[in-house]
Amino acid sequence: MNLLWSLLIGGVAGWLAGKLMKGEGYGLVVNILLGLVGGFVGDLVFGLLGLSTTNLIGNLVAAVVGAVLLIYLARAVRK
After folding, report:
1. Minimal CA–CA distance to 12: which of 44, 73, 74, 57?
2. What residues have CB less than 8 Å from 38, skipping those under 6 apart?
3. Residue extents of the structural domains in the chain
């Protein structure tokens, strides 16, 4: 069940990050991967700031923040 929630949150987070970054999009699978990795990155960033996520909304916010950071870094490296 946790895997299903992780995929759902990852997909939504990747989609939201794509909309926030106003890019051309990466597709469903890459959006899910961005959201999943973004969740990990977001948890690390929030941990460094002394914040923690304890519910579904918090996990989604952390995943979106992490995915946005990943998209930003990928675009910076590509240029």
Report:
1. 57
2. 10, 13, 14, 17, 63, 64, 65, 66, 67, 68, 69, 70
3. 2-78
**3-class secondary-structure state, position 22:** coil
Residue 16: the pLDDT is: 87
Give dist(CA 31, CA 43) in Å, integer.
18
Instruction: Tell me what pLDDT residue 25 has.
Output: 62
Locus of tokens 């948890």: 43
Question: Could you tell me if 13 and 60 are in contact, meaning their C-beta atoms sit under 8 angstroms apart?
Answer: yes
Closest C-alpha to 9, from 36, 42, 45? 36
The answer to whether residue 62 scores a pLDDT higher than 70 is yes
